[in-house]
Predict the structure.
Amino acid sequence: MTEQVDVSARAAAIEYAIRDVVVPAVELEAQGHEVIRLNIGDPLAYDGLPTPQHMVDAFKAALDRQDNGYGPSYGIPELRSAIASSESAKGWDCSPDDVYVTHGVTEALQILFAAFLEEGDTVLAPGPHYPPYMAYPQMYGGATVEYRLDPADGWRIDLDDIRSKMDETVRLLVLINPNNPTGNVATSEEIDSLIEIASDWPRCTIIADEIYDGLDFTGRMCSVASRSSSTPVIALNGVSKVYFAPGWRVGYMAWHDPSGTLVAVRDGVERLLRSRLCASTPAQHGFLAGFSDDSGWLEGHRSRIRERMDYCLDRIESIDGLECEAPGGAFYLFVRITDPEMAADDKAFVLDLLHRHHVLLVHGSGFSPEFGNGHFRMVCLPPIDLLAEAFDRIETFLRG
Ligand SMILES: Cc1ncc(COP(=O)(O)O)c(C=O)c1O
């Protein structure tokens, strides 16, 4: 056999459960099977949740006027201003200089981990969580420790568990709100407690991933930055979820540093941003249009998602072998497999269902080996007829 060139340990350790399960699904599709994909949080993959037309028009207009050059590294000024106004409207004083536009929140995370972490540093993230919070820190010498979300109480954050895991190595304390995969929306009291815990540790900054903030069904969503008067908070958001354009790859970080402790890290972040040039210029114009038109389109999208989510919850309730806490936001369900034998290996459950009935879910352990196993995550974005077919197949599978 040809001798193989070594891969770096850091690349070999990367896992992204949401897309890793697509590999066997593609093989089945190549054999002519029709797979119902419920794995990726992409509203554009299904009917009825398009990117708003005025944003598409603005993107196209930028292309037509040849606005296709490199842009400023921190984002085009009009977009930085619009984001700053939008963040300020959430209750804190955000200036355009506090905003950095990135290739999605995913790039913002890589830049933040690169700028904050040294060997031995820790990221304290919710368990379960969106997988890059586990995958990326190790590339920069850091490690992720999970704090517990309580499965018996709507996946509420366990503040005592956070308290017990804080120490001087924790550089970043992460809140994903609403949470992916559980859909939990934190209360303002919980957010205040989280800030208070972080405030005892001067080297700790809070990352508030609020990419689903417009998809809150509880009415209690509030911005973490708006609650903090001294602890630094970096809010993350973008065009992918609430503006229904994940393929544009535009997001941002907005820095709230009321005590001015992050000057050096911020300089590092700006260096990194300059070294990777800029985010897509025409896509930024598309995103910008999203801030200037408030014609109520989001309400339509939100109620469609709500209707589909309610349908899923009803079906799960009626199926012996499955249980699910009703989410407060986002568009996922994190479903518990009640049969202990099946739950013991949730990845095998997902792959078995895929091969036998051609429904693609993501195993819960892909979102947290410790707190997610025995579950699967599904999106509730497809139209109801497709969801009905998926649940029929899942039910048949569970009946054996
Ligand atoms: C919590 C969370 N943050 C970030 C992202 C990715 O955001 P972006 O598309 O802006 O990179 C996702 C995507 O599913 C997510 O669930």
